[in-house]
Amino acid sequence: MFESAELGHKVSKGKYKKLVPALRADLLDAQIELFKHGKFPVVLLISGQDGAGKGETINVLYEWMDARFISTIAFSQPSDEERSRPAMWRFWRSLPPKGRIGIFAGSWYSDPIGQRLAGSMSKIELDAQIDRINRFETMLINEGALVLKFWFHLTYEGQKQRLKELESNPRTAWRVTKWNWDRLKTYDKLQKVSGHMLRMTSKAAAPWIIVEGTDDRYRYLTVGQTLLDAIRAKLAAVKNTVAVESAPMLPQPSTINLRSVLSALDLTQSLAERSYEKQLAQWQARLAELARDPRFKGRSVVCAFEGADAAGKGGAIRRISAALDARQYQIIPVAAPTEEESMQPYLWRFWRHIPSLGRFTIFDRTWYGRVLVERVEGFCTQADWSRAYGEINDFEHELSEAGVIVVKFWLQVSQAEQLRRFKEREKIAFKRFKITAEDWRNRKKWDAYQQAVCDMIDRTSTGEAPWTLIEANDKNFARVKILRTLCKRIELELDGGLKEI
Q1: What is the mean pLDDT of residues 391-404?
Q2: pTM here?
């Protein structure tokens, strides 16, 4: 895989001086057009062997382009904050917005390669990480990102010589440590591990570009020209893209009795006030105990609330938060994306609110908006919401693997009960803000939303993150069922039961 990067590529000083001015001008023009149109971000990964010129190349890119529209994110060992969240969290929140270039010095490839070299990750585990990386990059590309991945390669002798040169120069000697020399001893193993990683993650939409790192001028020109060509091609593709109308429904299998997971719910279930007050206090007390359990310090909880309009999500959330220390949770109400959020992948605004260990995050509406409101209202294409099921499952799998307990609730009410609550809200002064013209408009699309919900449950209720359907015509019954379910899930996870199933 590295043969072409061992041919001794070189660029003369004269040729370099001749080519650079035009390349710099073209890069600036492309960068300005990228920012002006703001249609996609550029995710630039700079990886490779020690001493292969990664830092120098990044510095040259800053010199050649407008630094205001570039951000460089350097990753080393995870911080305490990062270790308390999923491994991908620090990369998720660092993605560049549309119209800008984000340079990753170190990336989601670094830890798997390092762990495999150290022997702390098996080949099977490495391949599982590779599969996750491929799905993550596919999601970025489907969200419109231009992903460019450079691997700077050196032969063993070339790397040894580069380290000696850096070490002998007083201005760069600090960059070479005993760790670098020790790492050189694992050269052959690194070639094997990185070669496998690069082969398995070099896809048509995001191929690895292997660059010989021996000659600085060759490396700078290769990276600069490749970046320019890729931005230009992406800009041209975006301009020529014809908007595709969103199809509101997927083809559904025919049914005889028209039953669904929602229509099968018994919405007549209720709980008398006295029994409700007793059970509410019981389960709130149990939740408070679980939140203080020493074992919970190594876990966290994400509660995802979805439901029909006026189904009682807010009231249920308040009964959960009443049992918790205010310092231990945050509630994230989700509305239409802000300008900042719309410049990122649709999951980004949820990624950044993932709780640290020992904490709860409660989402009032969630990432499922992509397969519900965006689907039904035509805010995205069928291709977008169809692929979102898999992307959401991947996201929740990442959370679960990191020790996050994902608990998802759908609150269901009948059309008649929803109408009663809508009218009640209009009459009560302090509830009027809850009812809008949009709520009435959504009600007219009841059947379309119900079908979207059934598809959502069918495609995203997994063993790690199952949906719990809440019969919510009676608020007392719904609130107790939610609290009981949450407590039981936390208990099961703390006891390790779910992992053994």
Answers
A1: 96
A2: 0.86
